[in-house]
Amino acid sequence: MPAFPPLPKSKLDTLPTELLQEIFLFSLNPSLPAASRALSTTLTGPHLRRRYLHEHRHSAPDLSRAFKARFFTVEFLADYERLFSRLEAEGTWIPLRLLYEDAGGALMEALMERGAKWEPEAYDSVLEGLREALREQRESVVQVALRDEGVAVDTACLRVALENGCGKPVLEVLAGRGADVGDVGVWKAALARDNELVEWLFTKATPPGEVLGQLMGR
Known about the structure:
mainly alpha
């Protein structure tokens, strides 16, 4: 098979490095380096990324876009603040990817401490991510994510937590944030696990009639 001819370079790829860096710094697109291999090589240095963040530090929409970038980690944030100053994130949105990628919730916690919150239009997606974290017993992620008082927990979260053996601290958080501890499904999930969880539920609510027979037989 004959080799395919190389793709022609875009006009952007042919610009001088210094000019490309200035374009990146003043653009509204932190994902610009992903546009081509040449741009990735030119625009992915940590120093340039820190400068990008510094140039856009006063714009909440621009910061929110930067938070979505893969390079934005808790280590990157710490390096930035060592060189410049504490980042103020009031009015910014936490990226949903952190519910799945931020293993211990450290970056979520750091952003919340600086004023970031979940976007209200994304609350349904936040709940979906919380249920997934509960299935995987990533309890610290759930507790950090729920520091945003705008997120109303549903009863399914508590049921999933009980089904997957999450500890009492996270159960307390879920119960305190709106999950219905009198729900039949919640009680059945506890009964399927162990007596300690059932005893915990007794401190929160009266058992529904549908499970009284199971309770009498234990």
